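Supplementary Text 2. Reproducibility record for the structural model of the 78-residue chain.

All settings were left at their defaults, and a single model was retained for analysis rather than an ensemble. We include the record here because the model underlies the residue-level annotations in Supplementary Table 4.
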Amino acid sequence: MKKSQPTRMCITCRSRHPQHTLIRLQQKGTEVVIFEGMGRSFYLCDTCVRDEKKIKGLAKRLRQDFERFTEFLGQLTR
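Retained model, structure tokens:
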């Protein structure tokens, strides 16, 4: 019998994807960092990471500097 894969939701587009295809991040204080294993976290899909308009809205929502946030996400997707 085949096990089902966990499904998680991207916080920007609200679409569901298999967990292993998403980027998992968390906000520590004022910084957004890669999930460290404890605390609340959120997921981003690859499509949203490449969409500048969605990232701009997310940066505003998380109170992040847009240029630094896009640079951080760019480093993660390489």
